[in-house]
Amino acid sequence: MADASVAMPRRGYTLGRARLVPVLLLLPIVIVFSVGYVVPLAQLVLKSLQLDGAWSLKSYIEIANSPAFLWIVLRTLALAATVTIICLLIAYPLAYAISKCPPRPAAFLLLIVTLPYLTSVLIRTYAWIVLLSPNGPINQLLLRLGVISEPLQMVFNSIGVYIGMVQVQLPLMVFPLYAVLARVNPSLAKAAQSLGSPPTDAFLRVTLPASMPGVISGCTLVFLSSLGFYITPELLGGPDSYLIAQGISLRVLILGNFDEAAAQSSILMLAVITVFLIFRQRIAEELDDRPHDNVSPTGTTTSGLSTPWPILERLTAILHGPSLRLHEAFTVVRRPLFYLMAALTLLLLILPFAVVIPLAFSDAPYLTFPPPGYSLRWFSSLLRNTQWLNALSFSLKWAGLSALLSVGIGVPAAFALVRYRFAARVPVYLLLISPLIVPHVVIAVSLFFALAGSSLIGNPLAFALSYTIIGAPYTVVVMIAGLKRFNRTLELAAASLGSSPLVTLRTVTLPLLLPTLASAAIFAFIVGFDDVVFGLFLSGPTATPLPMRMWDNIRLEISPQIAVIAVLFLIVLALLLLLRLFVGAVVAGRRPEESAHP
Amino acid sequence: MSVSTATVNEKAAASVATARSQRGSVSVKSLTKMFGPVTAVDDVSLSIEPGEFVALLGSSGSGKSTLLMMIAGFEASSSGDILLDGVRINDVPSYRRGFGMVFQSYALFPHMTIAENIAYPLRRRGLRGADVEREVAKALKLVALDGYGARLPSQLSGGQQQRVALARALVFRPPLLLMDEPLGALDRKLRQQLQMEIKLIHKEVGSTIIFVTHDQEEALSMADRVAVLERGRLQQCGTPRQLYEQPATAFVADFIGEMNFLPVELLRSGGEVCARSADLGLEVVQRENQVLASGDRGLLAVRPEYVGLTPDEGSTALVLESAYTGTNQSVLVQVGSIRLTARTSVSPGRQLFQSGQRVRVEIEAAHTRVFPAAR
């Protein structure tokens, strides 16, 4: 994989001076990433190793001697691991069910999974506060059913954090599982059945092993993302469920203990990067254009049969009859059970919307669910509040500009990574997608330190830079996927018809990639528009993005105002998705009437 | 780019004029392509006359497509020359070579109408307005798709899409048309129909055509000459009849049509080689040549239609299995340690051969060829 230049036949124009082109294509993104990401992170690590200008490990020693910090680390690890396992268990049936659906229902179900993923974490967390509160709908339901006699305390403690985190991370598990399961040849399981496996046995022996790559990527993503998560634990947790990311921001924003914050950030970042690099093979596979062999034989002998332990072999031989009957018994309940689990997972994904939408139309002056009556009072209060409106326009403007910038630097980079073979290809790819994995708290703290003292704190430009750093990886990933799907024969055809590479790009490649470009821009926009963490560190009196207003509202007064924002956000999201569908339809050529003649 | 219409039209006229003159001879000299350690095309030399229709025939991995891609300019050669009308074009980028190309997947631009697709190469050559419309209409007429200009590729059937691809590749009158398995994605009946259409269009436009296929029937029925490739090497290039009747190598003999290979002893004396099969009681004598320079074992190649069978209860040869195909009957016969297939014509009133029947086997020496045993 690393040295792909030799093993990759018939790819790319081998004619001409191709060496300089990828460098030029990657230059813009590498410059932006150096300034806003690599250098600040390097400074952060250096800072953690220094004390008053001299080399010192004092910060680390202090941390190591602090039992409180160790507890926080353990709690964070336990939370990340538990959330990962729960997500895997409940996401698998859903991903499997979607992979078995015909294309149209599958696309619809994937949209339902995508919707919460694209919706601000802040909005979802807000919904969970409402859902889980002592007089919230879940407690009310349980009380009415007589399951409990007094309300359960489910929010502002670890239970709330776990529930919220699972719901927030679930899409990250469903996507890679679905991607792999959809590729598994359904004939394999049928073949296993024809060879004597009952369906559940065929699933365990064929489908499940074939889906392992998806399990690994999903778990890696969820685990890493959970390690550095900030918003949900901060809002749903109580004093007993304090995590690393919270510790870091507390040290920077409240205690002013920058040295320890730098050290803790460095530790968190190194831990995440280590796990990331261990699983990089799986992640870098996204770049690979050879067909995947999902299952490779391991531990084979000369006979070609794997050799399990003899005892195990004998045990399975004895249990063969009963286990076959068990599998057969299970076959009857298998489908209903599976689809029930899938349906419950879907319910979990959309539950927040079921709360947020009615709440926006509440006529109560305070937060209560279900609303006693309906009105548009919270919509008009939003329109009358210049603070909210200013924040909204700030966010729209700077997230929009950053999205354009992300596309501008991410698209050429994706071209370089997909179309050219060069030595640094995989490392560059890993660097460009790493902001997806390095906790935003760490990046934000490093930028905060790098910009400290300059006029850039509280300056919109700092937001533009940080939104681009977290948005560009999405444009790179989306574009790489689009370019890999792109039928390059069309470019060869254009060349054979007399188009130079640039003309081909203008007349064939870019027009056909327009839907992908739209997706990339939408992703980058939403990532910036949703951001809270950078806002915490970089906001100033003249630069307050919308999520910061929402954050303050949730922490200080918690009113239905947030639900109104959520509804507006959903409307904007729906418009963006419609726009994306429209662009796709135009490019796919469903427009029989217009442009009849050349 | 702003070019005045006057010069543009002159250019177009010039390009048309040159295409009509005898342009389009292609030759390839010692062309080699390496992909890392793998040699995909190995020292291939081939010359193609203007207006000739040549098929590159081979199984997958034979290097036929790589050879085509090098001629098209999509793949750089490792060594050797590609000449168009005597001028070396190895370093000319594909978009300046001006060859038409038809792809297996059609490669129609999905975001453009049929007319826009066909107009594409004309616009790249600076044509505008009425000139474009006229040429597009002519091209659509050529492939019998008049009136389809406003549709989109997705609204056409596979066969229609391939005809559009052909029109698009021919509309700018290229001296050379390259076709990469153009009919591979179509069903049998449509394929045969399009084979005929392509031959007719070839007669009409007179471009040189290089046509890649793995279907020997297609190659033999369409091309003036067929070049057979195997593992990157050119095995033989000749007319369909030459390939069928005088295969140069055992590979070609095997690849084209059906062939029996019978192990024979080779006995040399006075510049002649005698191939002898004890089981068949057969001796074939031929002039010693380079191919048969050494070795005492060989393979005698004979086509099933030259294996004669007559019922003979006293013979040791036994019919194992037979298949009736209408005009013919294929019969698998065991003679000593040898198995061979015969094809006999079926005439009314004549008995069919039955398995278990004893037969006498006769092979016409004039229709056999001898190859060295080690293939």
Describe this protein's structure.
- The complex is a heterodimer of chains A (598) and B (375).
- Chain A has 598 residues and is mainly alpha-helical.
- Chain A is built from 26 helices and 2 strands.
- With 375 residues, chain B is α+β, with helices and mostly antiparallel strands.
- Chain B has 2 domains: 233 residues, Rossmann fold; 114 residues, Nucleic acid-binding proteins (OB fold (Dihydrolipoamide Acetyltransferase, E2P)), CATH 2.40.50.
- A 6-stranded mixed β-sheet of chain B has the order 6-7-8-3-9-10, sandwiched between helices.
- In chain B, a hairpin with a 2-residue loop joins strand 17 and strand 18.
- The chains are: A mainly alpha (598), B alpha+beta (375).
- At the A-B interface, helix 22, helix 23 and helix 26 of A face helix 2, helix 3, helix 4 and helix 5 of B.
Task: Offer a concise description of the structure.
The complex is a heterodimer of chains A (598) and B (375). Chain A is mostly helical.
The largest chain-to-chain contact, stated as pair and per-chain residue counts, equals: A-B, 37 and 50 residues
Distance between the termini of chain B: 58 Å
CATH topology of the largest domain in chain B: Rossmann fold
CATH superfamily of the largest domain in chain B: P-loop containing nucleotide triphosphate hydrolases
Low-confidence stretches of chain A: 1-16, 290-300, 590-598
Instruction: Give the percentage of residues in beta strands of chain B.
Output: 25-35%
What is the end-to-end distance of chain A? 45 Å
The CATH superfamily of one domain in chain A is known as MetI-like
Largest sheet of chain B: 6 strands, mixed
Please report which band the strand proportion of chain A falls in: under 5%, 5-15%, 15-25%, 25-35%, 35-45% or over 45%.
Answer: under 5%
Number of helices of chain A: 26
Which class do the helix and strand fractions of chain A yield? mainly alpha
